[in-house]
Amino acid sequence: xxxxxxxxxxxxxxxxxxxxxxxxxxxxxxxxxxxxxxxxxxxxxxxxxxxxxxxxxxxxxxxxxxxxxxxxxxxxxxxxxxxxxxxxxxxxxxxxxxxxxxxxxxxxxxxxxxxxxxxxxxxxxxxxxxxxxxxxxxxxxxxxxxxxxxxxxxxxxxxxxxxxxxxxxxxxxxxxxxxxxxxxxxxxxxxx
Amino acid sequence: xxxxxxxxxxxxxxxxxxxxxxxxxxxxxxxxxxxxxxxxxxxxxxxxxxxxxxxxxxxxxxxxxxxxxxxxxxxxxxxxxxxxxxxxxxxxxxxxxxxxxxxxxxxxxxxxxxxxxxxxxxxxxxxxxxxxxxxxxxxxxxxxxxxxxxxxxxxxxxxxxxxxxxxxxxxxxxxxxxxxxxxxxxxxxxxxxxxxxxxxxxxxxxxxxxxxxxxxxxxxxxxxxxxxxxxxxxxxxxxxxxxxxxxxxxxxxxxxxxxxxxxxxxxxxxxxxxxxxxxxxxxxxxxxxxxxxx
Lengths: 192, 294
What we know:
The structure holds two protein chains of two kinds. By secondary structure, chain A is α/β, with parallel strands linked by helices. Chain A has a single domain (4-191), classed as Class I glutamine amidotransferase (GATase) domain (Rossmann fold, 3-Layer(aba) Sandwich). Chain A contains five helices and twelve strands. By secondary structure, chain B is an alpha/beta fold. In chain B, strand 6, helix 6 (132-140) and strand 7 (145-148) form a beta-alpha-beta unit. The termini of chain B are far apart.
């Protein structure tokens, strides 16, 4: 089955995700209008500034459209800021930040510190048969998970990759590396 | 093993800022207004460029107290400026934990010949450029993000347009040039050959390229985006205008919807007076900040 995936094109690392999807051999489109979601099997919310993307989503009504399509079975992957936006709760952000609240996790923003503390490391991710490069940029962490959430990868400080049904969240940026494993993992979710 | 301060991590933060607006702020209150309006980052300053221009004298790095208070006020990244070549000011900003350092022509240069060796820092740098050679020299020194210089503090977009068009035109020239002309092109542009090869291969700068220097309206921001900018810096344009809150939010929306005239028309309505502008021709050579640090 041919999979069609989109990347939310509001702000952030949009072109990097589109390029990775295309290298996986699937049709990939930037998504700017809520109407485009109807034809997608999966959507990626890229890294960027979660406050900015959240405000632009609320302004355009995209937030409600994404929630509706996810209930209908569209797969969703959030990287970094995308992970924050998918979370049910964000520490210390009560009411300050528009969230989709789709995934039963609590997220801590900028959990490793400021940009000076941003880093790269090798990661073992459940379901991927080799260590992958993890690029963490002012990255968030999952600090609490609900019963439906499966942990795919954790560092000493906390969880950096998790899945719940067709929802996937990663703290790190596979789109900044040449390794397509994480994108293929997501496309597998889009197919099911 | 964890590795900090790699070029991929430095360049990566700029990639996360793409499509966004970075706003100059001088107080925690202004920083919160910028964040609320949807800014992707703020530039912490003691004075905006228009006031630096008006005050004259030597302009230096801001008081760390001002920067720290702004860092405490918002969760988005905080940038701050150092004088060209002043690597100790940069060491201080790195110590403070600033997220990006702007080695900026807006401040009075500390070194008329050399820029900072930016490879030696974990914190990434953004630098101004008027053409491809300047941009690639800064990248060779370690800059992980480029912006046009424009003419800061003027509210006049003409120089930012000139610099963006020049960089884009020279990129097209490099892309279309046969391999055997690259060495001479590199010599003419004063650009490192290896970086020129990378530009030819990728068809763009090796790092993110924002527009800066004179952007005052939502239309200015959309213009720069249509000319190929990856994002927008607004310096004096917001907090020197009549209604900073409304203007900041409008410029964020215009930067996202830069190709949609209906949205641009809508967000441009009723914003009050923009900052007063300066005609570039009235500036003496000494007043032109863009000539600093080439």
